[in-house]
Amino acid sequence: MFYGYYLDPTYILVLIGAVICIIASSRVNRVYAKYSRMRSHTGMTGKEAAERILHMNGIYDVTVHHIPGNLTDHYDPRNKTLGLSDATYNSSSVAAIGVAAHECGHAVQHATGYAPLKIRGSLVPVANIGSMAAWPLILIGLFINGNMSSILINLGIYLFSAAVLFQLITLPVEFNASSRAVRVLETSGMLYPDEVDATKKVLSAAALTYVASAAAMILQLLRLLILTGGRRNHD
Questions:
Q1: Does 103 qualify as catalytic in the annotation?
Q2: Mind listing the pLDDT tens digit for each residue in 154-193?
Q3: Nearest to 104 by CA among 32, 173, 181, 40
Q4: Nearest residue to 83 via CA among 65, 97, 109
Q5: What is the number of other CB atoms lying within 10 angstroms of the CB of residue 108?
Q6: What are the structural domain ranges in the chain?
Q7: pTM, whole model, 2 decimals?
Q8: What is the gyration radius of the CA atoms in the chain, in angstroms?
Q9: Bridge partners (DSSP) listed for residue 39
């Protein structure tokens, strides 16, 4: 079962996942930095763009506010707030407007009852527990004998699988929000065609980070199944 701390060949799966995430993160930072220097022709800020898009969709109960950090932008459906980061809130770049429009896409999803968003929301508690408790349960199961060993290992795998499922359901949610953002920017006249093209590149790079995270989680799950397979079959 155990390969030794330094000789465990399954560590390559963790390394592959880490490399994928690093590459995706590096790309989104590079692309965002490039188009954050491209000012939109309207001079509209991320905050102004967000408010306009929300109102265009008949949404008046979502508050747009400033939050610290870089690319920490998010929509919180619990209190209907749309947080825009330092790089987005007061910036008039096409990158900032694209990110603001993307977060508005989540607000529109929430307002229209978009099914994948609902499913993701229902998975949040289980995914949080799974990401924290899975490994401790599995490790305890590996160090004890008897039926309880298999119970703990299987429970850990089920919990981690829930965290993986959360990452997978996040993909259509994020892609759909970006599609909504691009459509509204194309049809509203808020950006010129070349500016929309730039925004597409920013949102595509951002989407790759979610794909990378999902891939890394799947690789970790595969590692868990490899490490515990022999023990579960033996028990």
A1: yes
A2: 898 999 999 999 999 999 999 999 999 999 999 998 999 9
A3: 181
A4: 65
A5: 23
A6: 11-234
A7: 0.87
A8: 21
A9: 93
